[in-house]
Amino acid sequence: MKVPDSLQTLGTNVFEECSKLVPSDINVKDSNAVVAHLRARPHTQACIRGDIPALKNALVDDPQFPFKQAPDGGTLLSFVFDKPVIVKFIIQTCPTATIDSKSPLEYAKEMKSPQLIIDMLEFLTADEMKVCGETEAEIQAAIVEKKATLSNNKSAMADIVDFTAREKATELQTKMFGELKAAAVDDAQVTFNELKVFCGDQAKRLGDLIAVVMNKYKTTDPRRYEPFEQVKDIAVKDQLPPPAALPLPEQVEFQLANATWYEEGFRAAMREVAAVFNEAKTCEEICEHYDIDNSNGKWSKELRAEVFNLDLRTNQVVRAKFGPPKGFPRALEKMSQGKTLRDLNRVTFEFEDPLLMALCFEVLHKKYSIHGLKNKYLQETFKEPPNLHMNLDIKDGWLCEVQMLFRDILLIKKELHKFYDVNRADGPFVVAGKLFKSLDDPGEQQRDEESKYRSGLDGGGERSLLTVIKEKESQLKADKKKKKKQVSSRPKWRWGERGDKE
Hints:
The chain has 502 residues and is an alpha+beta fold. It folds into two domains: 5-114; 153-458, no CATH class. It is 51% helix and 10% strand. The protein contains 18 helices and nine strands. The chain has helices at 14-20, 31-39, 53-59, 84-93, 104-110, 116-119, 126-131, 136-160, 163-181, 185-219, 222-229, 248-279, 283-290, 328-336, 354-367, 407-423, 442-454, 465-488; strands at 45-49, 67-69, 75-78, 98-100, 318-322, 346-351, 370-375, 388-395, 398-406. A five-stranded mixed β-sheet has the order 5-6-9-8-7. It has a four-stranded antiparallel β-sheet with strand order 2-3-1-4, with no helix packed on it. The longest helix has 35 residues, at 185-219. The N and C termini lie far apart (59 Å). Mean pLDDT is 74; it is low at 1-22, 38-101, 442-463 and 492-502.
């Protein structure tokens, strides 16, 4: 492979390193053949050192140059430098940058982190891990741990929407409603009691899944969860009060009306935040847009992590959903209990990546005064779906509610809500309306398919992390089987044949 003269300024040559990885039967002058071969080895990477966001911004949308975050904050870039124009761009745009054409194996040898196996699992073969000093037992343990975490969450996701449970609840509801229509109230009460017990069991089942799902967010990539753990509680502040001279009902009406004057600006502001996150190419771009301090490299991580896919079809990293206006009866009930209405304007941000949820909090904290912050994800046990809950001063002291939920937690919350409504009802008339749509409803089927597709565990991308782990596990088993065969095929020496004994 001919080396362009311009590459000499980059130190160790990328093209030269690429050529070492190409078999002799491939024409190194055929760039398409070289690229095809390199693509067949997804763990073949180059490491770019230094802060060079211009390069990342230029290449991040090119499928030939997928970025992956390195454990030390560097960037791993696929070895597909077949375009001279890209090399020229590197030199012109980043004259101080250096490209170390190191394989993940060379890179891993320099690492001293105890997280080495997990960090490099996607980039190294089992044999390469052993060269780094890890034993087969340590590699296998790391693979088993990671696989168990992902498999447990995958099973939990499959259990969230239990269509058999929905059918059973609908069956009991149908029977109960028929009894109410026939004025058989006593019979309806008996059926209601049975329905309530059943829904209580379902609520407990879903509640037990919360801890399993949260374990995924905590352990899949601890480095991306760490900034999220630093989001601590902030004291509550009361809502901007209505005129004290008004009677209570009029105070409620005033607050409901006041919320309408802030709703449009609130929605525009929250949509702008979601748009910046979804349109950005890097975390650094978001930090620059909002002037977030990143001098310590805290946010210098991959924006769209392979293991935290919110929606594989749209490539979005966050979704914003606004709550409907609060009704007068509920608002009156809360204010009559001495509570202030801090949730008249409200939005729910849905994330899959804990790092991005923490970064979104930093953005809101930078733009607004935050009050009443509760990071319920930090609880040791969960009685209900947790969230990151806060009130922000949108303008003039008027407080709005912001909740941030992980995708899988939000799915649990939505399913749990139906059963919870029955569980807290005090009679059959309260839950006489149909809870679940028919299973053959096109909209229901589409939503179910969408929820499956959004799961990064099922792939949808070219190679999911679970696939990588299975490949490593298979490789270890094959190596073990091969060694066993080699041992059994060795010649059995007799005494005296090697001169050991006479």
